[in-house]
């Protein structure tokens, strides 16, 4: 939880275009903003202070210290970010893996047609040398819809900002999508055949590929 909160604070700094010396909301305000307890928030703040993102001045408030920190400036910071991304990947494996399993059992002919067209567009963009991150995201969202489980969809949506990190910087480079491209086709073929075991096996290959790319940074 503290790692997730620390990322939300960094996202807030970026979204508000805060600069060095700018003041962050109070601890009380941030517990309400992020829906977390004081202990988790304080641990997140200690982490951000340790990597020089913020500085906490007793009696004065919390201030931005270095807006460039989360642009991977330094080996230690890179390692921390890698661990964070790998933690998100563990959650993605569990949630999306279940969606893949359910999709293989529940996908409709209309959804098969929709995902077939999505992969055609993926191939067209790839062959044209264009960015494929967003069509990749659309494919995965289509699989989630095919799972036909509103609770699972709600949980995935609640962490959408973290989930979408795999389709944006720093992971949104073309290398990621080129190296995982084939597994989208093999996984979809298994889903369309209603073979959940094979679909999960192909999904695991895709996740393993992403894990190796993260570790290689």
From TrEMBL:
GO molecular function: DNA binding; DNA-binding transcription factor activity
Record's keyword annotation contains Manganese: no
Residue stretches making up the HTH gntR-type domain: 1-67
Superkingdom of origin: Bacteria
Name of one Pfam family that matches: FCD
InterPro entries given in the database record: GntR_C (IPR011711), TF_FadR/GntR_C (IPR008920), Tscrpt_reg_HTH_GntR (IPR000524), WH-like_DNA-bd_sf (IPR036388), WH_DNA-bd_sf (IPR036390)
Alphabetically ordered keywords of this record: DNA-binding, Transcription, Transcription regulation
Protein name: FadR family transcriptional regulator
Organism: Paenibacillus rhizovicinus
């Amino acid at each position: 939880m503290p790692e997730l909160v620390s990322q939300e604070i960094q996202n807030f700094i970026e979204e508000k275009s805060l600069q060095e010396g700018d003041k962050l909301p109070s601890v009380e305000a941030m517990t309400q903003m992020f829906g977390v307890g004081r202990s988790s928030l304080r641990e997140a703040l200690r982490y951000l202070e340790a990597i020089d993102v913020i500085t906490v001045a007793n009696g004065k408030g919390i201030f931005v210290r270095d807006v460039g920190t989360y642009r991977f400036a330094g080996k230690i910071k890179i390692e921390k970010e890698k661990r964070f991304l790998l933690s998100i990947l563990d959650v993605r494996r569990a949630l999306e893996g279940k969606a893949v399993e359910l999709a293989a059992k529940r996908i409709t002919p209309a959804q098969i047609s929709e995902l077939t067209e999505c992969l055609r567009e993926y191939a067209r963009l790839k062959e044209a040398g264009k960015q494929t991150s967003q069509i990749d995201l659309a494919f995965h969202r289509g699989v989630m819809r095919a799972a036909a489980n509103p609770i699972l969809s709600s949980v995935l949506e609640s962490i959408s900002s973290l989930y979408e990190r795999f389709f944006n910087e720093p992971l949104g480079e073309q290398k990621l999508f080129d190296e995982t491209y084939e597994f989208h086709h093999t996984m979809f073929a298994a889903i369309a055949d209603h073979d959940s075991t094979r679909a999960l096996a192909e999904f695991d290959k895709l996740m393993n590929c992403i894990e190796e790319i993260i570790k290689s940074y």
